[in-house]
């Protein structure tokens, strides 16, 4: 009799363990999928902020390659999204990192058209101080929008610094480190684009390749 009740208890325990594990696995799966989906939507929204949606007709989100260059501020492969109209290259969106933010790396999206002019810059992720460095967010100030229309000729290379360093970009009051890091990262992204423009559009999606780094 005692033996039987132990067996029944063990059976219940087993059943609850299986049910519990199943529920956790199910919740994890559906939540992970939803998180990934939300991240995809957020990225697509940002991509569309840095390249004019009317200027391309391809699926920019899947027309992507991974590239590696010190000019992009990270050792990790960085995605490059390509925008095309009727199959012809229109613009590329690079994903450089400004490694020298006040509180660490600042992840950016930099849209550049074929002529090498910036079509838009947005911050993807950062840990800069609220009220000081976070003015790099488009939601907090207009600062990041001022890159649009700039290129390596406008201003010239020397001008790609904050005013405190005799360049042409504003710093923030009491916060020079963050904007200095972002200006340098966008400038380097433009240099990278100039040196690799043709390869960037020629590569097949998902290929990863070491790119040319100008000295
Ligand atoms: C708690 C704290 C947080 C700060 N956060 C930032 C920041 O996020 N970005 C930034 O550029 N400077 C930040 N600063 C200011 C920098 O230490 C530095 O003084 C400033 O960037 C230099 O700019 P300035 O020459 O215009 O003063 C912070 C300072 C303190 C004390």
Verbal overview:
With 215 residues, this protein is α+β, with helices and mostly antiparallel strands. It has one domain (51-210). The protein is built from 2 helices and 7 strands. Strands 1, 2, 3, 4, 5, 6 and 7 form a 7-stranded mixed beta sheet that branches. The longest helix has 49 residues, at 2-50. The radius of gyration is 23 Å and the shape is elongated. It starts with a helix and ends in a 5-residue tail after the last strand. The mean pLDDT is 92.
Outline:
The protein contains two helices and seven strands; from the N terminus they run αββββββαβ.
User: Compounds present?
Assistant: flavin mononucleotide
Largest sheet report: 7 strands, mixed
Element-by-element helix/strand order: HEEEEEEHE
Structural domain count: 1
Distinct helical segment count: 2
How many E strands? 7
User: Structural class of the secondary structure composition?
Assistant: alpha+beta
| Rg for CA atoms | 23 Å
What is the share of helical residues? 25-40%
**Portion in strands:** 15-25%
Mean pLDDT: 92
User: What's the N-to-C terminus distance?
Assistant: 84 Å
- Backbone shape: elongated
Low-confidence stretches: none
Task: Annotate the secondary structure layout.
Elements (H helix, E strand, L loop, with lengths): L1 H49 L13 E6 L4 E12 L2 E7 L2 E5 L2 E10 L4 E8 L51 H26 L5 E3 L5
Parallel strand pairs: 1-7
Antiparallel strand pairs: 1-2, 2-3, 3-5, 4-5, 5-6
The structure holds flavin mononucleotide.
